[in-house]
Amino acid sequence: MSEEGINKAGIPPTRGVLHRLLTRVIDVRPAEMRALGWSWLYIFSVLFSYYILRPIRDEMGVAGGVENLQWLFTGTLLGMLAINPPFAALVARLPRVKFIALSYRFFLANLLLFALLLHVATAEQNIWIGRLFFIWVSVFNLFVVSIFWAMMVDVFDAEQGKRLFGFIAAGATVGGIVGSSLTASLARQVSPTYLLLISALLLEAAVFCVGRLAKISDALQRRSAERPGERPIGGSAFSGLSHALISSYLINVSGFILLFAITSTFLYFQQAEIAKLSFADRGARTVFFARVDLWVNVLTLGAQLFLTGRVLRWFGVALTLAALPLLSIIGFGALALAPTVAVLVVYQVVRRAGNFAFARPTREVLFTVVPREDKYKAKSFIDTVVYRLGDQVGAWSYAGLGLLGMGMTGIAIVAVPISLLWLLNGLWLGRRQDEMALAQNGSSRTAASVAK
Predict the structure, then answer these.
(1) Range of the domain at 332
(2) Is position 313 within any domain?
(3) Mean pLDDT for back-to-back runs of 10 residues, the chain (452 residues)
(4) Domain count, the chain
(5) Which residues contact 400 (CB under 8 A, 6 or more apart)?
(6) Is residue 12 included in any domain, yes or no?
(7) Are 320 and 430 a contacting pair, CB within 8 Å?
């Protein structure tokens, strides 16, 4: 989506005060402003919706018993396995805007159903509904965000991703701040039913943004044979799985996400245990989870606005990907030396902020160099099934280490070599992405010369 292509498509570049202000923060071209704006609003709506639900989910998980969390993670993995083939079939047969809208409205309908169940259920029934809700939100979260980033890597190329994905991710962070603040302020006064209804309305707003962005993208790509816009992608319902298992590049992307998820699950379980011991009241636990989310998002936002794009340009994909594994080695090492609540909370906040500000936008750049079918199908499989497989490995490993008598110190020591392997994987991926981007750019220039 080059600026030249945009001008040929007949879309006038956005100019004025807004563009001048944005250029002080990120390197955005005038012709990219409309696509950037709708992308930002899109992810803002999705994450606003999710962060209303996240503290409610976490509280329901604790209420159902911390000792049962690994079973909920198993249920989440099964949910991911069940939903991927139907989604891949939609991708193969429908234009992009239609399969995204159908997917989001499916989750919207589920939200309305949960709101009704929570409204009419008894206290005992609410425990089981809460367990189902925990699994559902864990599926919902990864799936709707994966779809968003799949569209981003389809609309923007690798060069644009390095410049713009950090700012776009800031939309997710602002949505998270607003969503967690709303839940933190209302959780004790308002029934979860009403919060779920607000979340559903925000999903419909995301669908509207998808439609607007698709029209812009279609106009920009109409003259390009390489970027076919809204034509169905084709392929089979299981090509995402098969491609993810035969490509060495995608296998290593899967490894990066798997190792991230394993180490994240270790920290998540420790946070759940601390919350259960520290807060007896369910409303207080929900507020605690929401405030942790708020701290993470505030720290993330500053980094995304002022550092992400610059760090990617200065250090490249490989070193930026390696930053979070390096932080994890340091963090788990600190926990091994001083396994205190304070160290755990600080590490959790800094690690999550580092993921959202640097690792996640950089990880999405990895998908800008793969074929279009893999951007939706293989990416969805990796972002959801592989991620939740990592959760599963982490959850049962955590339980197993606990049975062996390992406390926080022992688990932290185990996590250090896992993080080292993760670091080496990130360095390889970054170098390979650079090679593939250079080859892709060379092919594009050759095709443009032939077309002339």
Answers:
(1) 29-223+238-437
(2) yes
(3) 42 57 75 89 94 81 65 82 86 87 93 87 74 87 89 88 88 87 80 88 95 78 50 69 88 95 86 70 70 79 85 90 95 84 80 91 91 87 88 86 82 92 96 90 53 44
(4) 1
(5) none
(6) no
(7) yes
